[in-house]
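task queued by scheduler; priority normal; single chain, no ligands, no partner chains; default sampling; output format set to structure tokens
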Amino acid sequence: MSGDFDALTAAGWYEGRDAGEGALAAALTAAAVLAAATGARGSSLFPAALRALREFHGLAPVPGTAGTEVAATGCVIDPGTAVHAARSFAALAGELGEEVFPLGRTDAGGALGVSESGGLLCVDHGGRWVLGDSVADGLRALTTGRAPRRIVPRRWGWEAPATHEDPLENAVRTVLAGVYVLHHRQLFGARSLGLAAASLRGIGAEVLSVPVPLPAGSLQDIAAPLTARVRESLDAAGVGVRGCAITLTASAPEGTPAPYSSVRCSVRFGHSAVAPAAAELSLAAGAGTVHGRARGLVRACVRDLSRYAGAGADVPVPVPV
């Protein structure tokens, strides 16, 4: 087919399309089914879902190509064909921190849903996916075979810069840089660090896991007293820096909403027998940060931490957790 072929236009879509009362009736019926299946979570008909249904309800776009990156497939826009995935959508909504409403099904049997932020999502036998950041973009991706984003936890890692001879102080100052980045990018303000130590002997069992509150003051001013407090915690537990892998983690405070609550920044050292003072800086993010506003914030954190680690501004490829 011609490179100008557009599956949505061929299916009857046009700018300003409104499926009218039929779309509203289908939406209300689906909302009632969801309410019965899952309770309040996933049952509300939010504005983005209603807009998507009024614009696309009743369309059945078909591919105009075999697929550019993955196999292209068609779909049917009818929420009644996706209500069977109510519990899957409810679980996904909990991770995303925003509701997901059924929109239709793919010809391959996947359930399509729209998120509160307007993205097109899919749940199928292969996993959970973001097809597009808008419904129109997602439908075009589906029918042209553009690869979707898999909704899975991710992790990025860097070699931390060695700014201090003392590996413990270096680790504290590095994790405080992570605390700053998380706060600056508006994910959350950490209130404490998680301090963990694992023995390098035997099976590497964890020998210490305690919280260390962050004192008040600027990050620059608290670095030295915080290092002393961490050292006191290690000494009190009889844990030496030598012979253990030490990890400091900045996590979201209790009450932080999803998906921001799934993000954490860690620094680890002592885990390598070859270079025991070398520190690894990492950022981990839950599956819900693959979509919506959180995705942009996490990507900004990755860029900031890359610069801090001297790795440049490019966003490295995440490793699925």
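post-processing summary
- The mean pLDDT is 91.
- The CA atoms of residues 159 and 280 lie 5 Å apart.
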